[in-house]
Specification:
0% strand, Serine Threonine Protein Phosphatase 5, Tetratricopeptide repeat, 71% helix
Length: 338
C-alpha cells in the first residue's frame, strides 16, 4: 500500500496502480512536462472513480489538484506559443482521421452527393469538437479544480486547522483566478484572489509570506487590467513586503539559494509598481486635458468678481480735457459782455 506525499493520511491512495500513475503525473508537473502529467493523472482519476464509484472520493483530491494544475499550465503555454491558432496534436492519429473525414465530407457536399446515416453521425460528432484546443484545456482545468475545491472544502469541515488543506484551497483559488483572467472575467478573478489571500493570512507556516507575495502580485496585475492603478500600487507594495519577510525567514548559510531566488523576484515586482504609479500620473493628465478641451476647467479663467470695480467717475470728471467747442463758447460770452 502506498500513500501520497501529503502532510496527512487524509489523501491516501489505496490502489497501487492509481498511486503509481499519480506519482508519475506529479513528478511531470514539477518537471513542467504538462502533457505527460495530464496523461498520467487522467488515468489516476479514471481508475479511482471506477474503483470507488464516485467522483468526489477523498482519494481524488490530490490527483484532481495536480491534474487541474497541469491542464492550466498546458493551456497557458499553448496559448503563448500558438496565440489564437488551432493547437493540433500531430501524434494523435484520431485527430488526423477526423480531419480527413471532415475534408472528405466537405468535398461530398460540394459535389452534391447524399451522405448515409453513418456519415451524418460522424459529421455531428465533428461539429461538436471545439476549434481551439487550448481553450478546452482551460475549461477542463476549471472543472477539475472546482471538483478538487469541493473535496478539500468538505474535508476542511472536520479538519479546520489543517494547513495543507487551507493551502490547497487557496492555491486552487489562485489558479481559478488565472483561468478567469485568460477568459477576460476580471471580476471573478479578483474575487478568487481575494479569497486566496484571506485563507493565506490564517497560515502561520514559513511559506505564508511567499504565498501572500504571489497572491498580492497577481492581485496587482488584475487591478492594472481594470485600471485601478492606486490599488495596483498598494498590492505590489504588499507583494514586495511579503518577499522581504520571506527572505528574513531564510536565515543561515544553507538557505542562501532560497534568499537569492526570492531576491531575484523583487526587480520585476518593483517595475510593475513603478508602471502603475506612472499610469496614475497619466490618468491625471488625461483628466486635466479633457477638462480643458471641454471648457470645464476653471483654472485658466480670470475671475473679476473677487476684486470690486473701483468707481473712477470723479477722477474722469476732474481730468476731462476741454474741447475746442467749449473754448469758442467761452470766447463768445466774453465778447458779448464787453
Amino acid at each position: 500500500m502506498s500513500t501520497t506525499t501529503t502532510a496527512s493520511n487524509l489523501f491516501e491512495i489505496k490502489d497501487e496502480e492509481a498511486n503509481e500513475s499519480f506519482l508519475l503525473g506529479k513528478r511531470d508537473v514539477l518537471l513542467n512536462n504538462y502533457q505527460s502529467a495530464c496523461d498520467h493523472l487522467s488515468k489516476t482519476c479514471e481508475r479511482i472513480v471506477k474503483l470507488r464509484e464516485s467522483d468526489t472520493a477523498p482519494e481524488l483530491a490530490e490527483p484532481y489538484f495536480y491534474y487541474g494544475q497541469a491542464l492550466l499550465y498546458l493551456g497557458l503555454s499553448e496559448q503563448q506559443v500558438f496565440g489564437s491558432d488551432i493547437v493540433k496534436d500531430t501524434d494523435n492519429d484520431e485527430n488526423e482521421n477526423i480531419e480527413e473525414e471532415n475534408n472528405t465530407e466537405s468535398k461530398e457536399d460540394e459535389d452534391g452527393e447524399i451522405k448515409d446515416d453513418d456519415n451524418e453521425e460522424e459529421e455531428n460528432e465533428d461539429d461538436s469538437i471545439p476549434n481551439d484546443e487550448h481553450v478546452n484545456d482551460l475549461e477542463r482545468a476549471f472543472e477539475i479544480l472546482e471538483c478538487a475545491h469541493m473535496i478539500y472544502s468538505k474535508m476542511s469541515e472536520t479538519n479546520l486547522n489543517d494547513v495543507h488543506i487551507i493551502t490547497r484551497i487557496a492555491d486552487i483559488h489562485v489558479m481559478l483566478a488565472d483561468i478567469c483572467n485568460e477568459n477576460g472575467d476580471h471580476e471573478n478573478a479578483l474575487s478568487h484572489v481575494l479569497k486566496a489571500i484571506e485563507l493565506q493570512e490564517t497560515i502561520n507556516e514559513q511559506q505564508r509570506y511567499r504565498l501572500l507575495a504571489e497572491s498580492y502580485y497577481k492581485l496587482g496585475l488584475i487591478y492594472e487590467l481594470i485600471h485601478k492603478f492606486s490599488d495596483a500600487v498598494d498590492s505590489f507594495n504588499k507583494a514586495i513586503d511579503g518577499i522581504h519577510q520571506a527572505i528574513k525567514q531564510f536565515d543561515g548559510d544553507d538557505k542562501e539559494n532560497e534568499r537569492q531566488e526570492l531576491q531575484s523576484l523583487l526587480p520585476s515586482i518593483e517595475l510593475k509598481r513603478n508602471d502603475a504609479q506612472a499610469s496614475i500620473a497619466d490618468q491625471h493628465l488625461i483628466v486635466q486635458a479633457r477638462k480643458i478641451l471641454s471648457g470645464t476647467d476653471n483654472t485658466t479663467e480670470v475671475k473679476t468678481t473677487d476684486i470690486p470695480a473701483k468707481d473712477i467717475t470723479l477722477n474722469v470728471r476732474h481730468k476731462r480735457p476741454v474741447t475746442e467747442t467749449e473754448n469758442d463758447d467761452e470766447t463768445n460770452k466774453k465778447a458779448k459782455l464787453e
